[in-house]
Write a structure and sequence with these properties.
The protein has 543 residues and is mainly beta. Helices cover 8% and strands 36% of the residues. The protein has a 17-stranded mixed sheet that branches. α3 runs antiparallel to α4. The longest helix has 15 residues.
Length: 543
């Protein structure tokens, strides 16, 4: 009986019995060119050999513990059927592999690393290298191998491409998981591990994130950079806004955003960036929205009227249409501007910053640790809002983790919060009207905020007319000079924000100075005068 007739007998036997399997215990099985063998169950090559110059279709597990040889003609291995099956090829190479499981929930899992030399046709079902339980298992192909994916299909786990060269985009786990290297000395191979949420791909730490994990590895090479596409599915977005996604890298247990250069393709659901240094490829990567919402409440002592804050500058029409913090000591170059002041309840512009010192200590939260900031509007009820005059302030941050919020004003002392943990929702909040929510340096002679009249709320100290972070007699003199010159308008010396400079501004400043020492004992050299009140923000003070 020739081999062709043997194949027909097997197929006929399957159609009658419905289920069959093949265990090879020493025979030499050859599928000739043009031949086709279908195993409706498991194929186990325990010993002996299988030489494939045609097509073998397996609808169960394929465990190869002996010799499997793909020749150079039609040789194809087709994995189909239902359920979760395992493909273990040992050191044997498959030239052409087709994955055609019945449904998306039917999965092929690798039981060892697998080399596909010529072509992968991924038509249906799941395909996993088993990255959680067996992270060393790889799907390996030269860069010359063709990867064809049906719509929506992607490989879970680790894909290694060999024979690497610079300048060519190479496909890995799915059509939009691509890597291109440029410059320097190229590596000899490159590996991408991509684990989606459905397979347990939860990035390290409980931060804001798309629920998909990326790892990269390469052999050799130096001084090159990588351009990478990071794909995702919309079901993994979590709380992130798709248009805002950027790549993040985990550096020394701290997530750092790669804010530029970034391209977002929301139609095909991937984010791309260019110029990643070779040294950064050893880090864990993820996608996340860097735009965080800041729910901040604060009051200004100077504008306080016993119930809320006055809006005199707004009513007089002298509030600037562009943010005013592009001057010393704020040195903020933001381009925030409006065509008109959007809300009649706006008191003034304020500057909100997020600071994250490496030490995690408030005394180290200097301006060098700013990871994001933006100017917004302060409403008369203490709410800080964005440029639309209604919604909470939001802006991009460059690091994730517990941080400190500062709120700063033109002629009131800025305030630093206590440490605030970040969260997966992408929000930070602080109510400065509560004394406990502001950081108080050890030995500070006064509280970081002032108790307002008419209740239990606290507000920012008024009177910093020269903007140096200290309220003292110098500020009083600065205001008196402005009074003598009959100054008016949007000025730093207008402490009560009334659109006029007068004795009220002097008195408010003197009240601030007289409060020095009411919140504690002066035990630190930086609080070296009982006739001054100083901001709790740990930036350098110039008297």
């Amino acid at each position: 009986m020739n081999k062709r007739s043997l194949l027909f007998i097997i197929l006929f036997f399957y159609s009658s019995i419905v289920y069959c399997q093949l265990i090879n215990n020493g025979a030499a099985i050859t599928i000739q060119n043009g031949g086709y063998m279908m195993i409706a169950g498991n194929l186990q090559n325990t010993s002996g050999s299988i030489t494939n110059d045609g097509k073998i279709e397996v609808r169960g597990n394929f465990i190869n513990n002996a010799t499997y040889t793909s020749t150079g003609n039609e040789d194809s291995l087709i994995i189909s059927g239902t359920g979760i099956d395992t493909l273990t090829m040992g050191s044997s190479v498959v030239n052409n592999l087709t994955i055609n499981k019945t449904t998306g929930s039917d999965t092929l899992r690798l039981g060892s690393s697998l080399t596909v030399n010529t072509k992968l046709d991924y038509l249906s079902g799941g395909l996993s290298t088993d990255p959680i339980l067996n992270p060393s298992f790889l799907l390996i192909s030269p860069t010359s191998a063709v990867y064809n994916f049906a719509s929506g299909e992607e490989i879970t786990g680790s894909v290694k491409r060999t024979g690497w060269a610079n300048g060519t985009a190479v496909v890995f786990n799915q059509p939009d998981m691509q890597v291109t290297t440029n410059g320097g000395t190229n590596p000899t191979d490159f590996t991408v591990t991509m684990i989606p949420q459905s397979a347990g791909g939860d990035p390290t730490q409980n931060e804001r994130e798309v629920k998909r994990k990326f790892l990269f590895n390469q052999t050799g090479g130096s001084g090159f950079t990588a351009d990478i596409k990071f794909p995702y599915t919309t079901s993994e977005l979590n709380t992130n806004v798709e248009n805002n996604l950027v790549p993040w890298e985990l550096i020394s247990s701290e997530w750092n955003a790669r804010l530029t250069p970034v391209t977002n393709d929301v139609a095909n659901h991937f984010v791309s960036t260019t110029g990643i240094a070779a040294s950064d490829l050893s880090l864990e990567w993820k996608l996340a929205d860097p735009k965080y919402t800041f729910n901040v409440t604060a009051f200004l002592r100077g504008a306080w009227n016993g119930t809320n804050m006055n809006t005199s500058l707004n009513a007089a029409g002298i509030l600037p249409l562009s943010q005013p913090y592009n001057t010393t000591p704020f040195n903020y170059a933001g381009t925030e501007s409006v065509a008109s002041i959007p809300n009649s309840n706006i008191v003034d512009w304020v500057l909100v910053e997020l600071r994250k010192p490496a030490s995690g200590l408030p005394q180290d939260a200097t301006s060098a640790t700013i990871i994001g900031r933006k100017a917004g509007f302060l409403l008369n009820d203490g709410t800080v809002v964005d440029l639309d005059g209604t919604t909470p302030l939001s802006f991009d941050i460059s690091k994730q983790g517990a941080s400190f919020i500062t709120i700063r004003h033109r002629n009131h002392l800025g305030v630093l919060s206590n440490s605030i943990p970040s969260n997966s929702a992408g929000t930070f909040a602080n109510d400065y009207s509560l004394l406990a929510n502001s950081y108080k340096p050890a030995g500070a002679p006064s509280d970081p905020v002032e108790l307002l009249s008419g209740g239990s709320k606290y507000g920012l100290w008024g009177g910093d007319a020269n903007k140096n972070g200290v309220v003292n007699v110098t500020d009083v003199n600065t205001i008196k000079i402005a009074i003598s010159g009959s100054s008016s308008g949007y000025l730093f010396t207008d402490i009560n924000l009334s659109n006029s400079i007068n004795v009220t501004d002097v008195n408010l400043t003197k009240v601030t100075i007289s409060a020095s020492g009411t919140g504690g004992t002066d035990t630190k050299t930086e609080f070296r005068s009982q006739s001054r009140v100083q901001t709790n923000i740990p930036d350098h003070i110039v008297d």
